[in-house]
Write a structure and sequence with these properties.
By secondary structure, the protein is of the alpha+beta class. The protein has three helices and six strands; from the N terminus they run E-E-H-E-E-E-E-H-H. It is globular and about 40 Å long.
Length: 129
């Protein structure tokens, strides 16, 4: 399963929360991701924003849970341990914003934009292998 996370600055593995340890408040060590690249892109604000792409095995591991995310149509999945080994790409948000701002795309539905982003990311990953 491919998941996405938007960040306002480049990814630093040393800043990822470690697995739960006794003495720390519950719920403070998860990292949230989504299945929707457009939703993740919304969080990758600014010139230095990036979107992380990870591929998790199916069925989802036990350390992944689905969390409530307001009235958003995108699913929010919380990873309760470091995810470095599953990271497949860190894509500049500017590149992805250019995909959804093209003429003829900007006025389309969010669902269509999300599919365009998925296709662009897939093409980028296959060309880099």
């Amino acid at each position: 399963m491919r998941l996405y996370r938007g960040l306002t600055r480049p990814f630093r593995p040393d800043r990822v929360a470690v697995p739960f340890q006794p003495g720390t408040p519950a719920g403070t060590n998860g990292t949230d991701f989504t299945e929707c690249p457009l939703a993740a892109l919304g969080y990758a604000r600014g010139r230095r924003g990036v979107v992380l792409v990870i591929d998790l095995p199916e069925p989802l591991p036990r350390w992944v849970s689905e969390e409530y995310w307001g009235d958003s149509v995108a699913r929010r999945l919380m990873l309760w341990r470091p995810f470095h080994e599953y990271l497949v790409a860190e894509i500049p948000a500017q590149e992805l914003r250019a995909v959804v701002r093209r003429k003829g795309v900007a006025a389309t539905s969010d669902d269509y934009k999300s599919h365009l982003l998925e296709r662009h990311i897939e093409q980028r990953l296959t060309s880099s292998r």
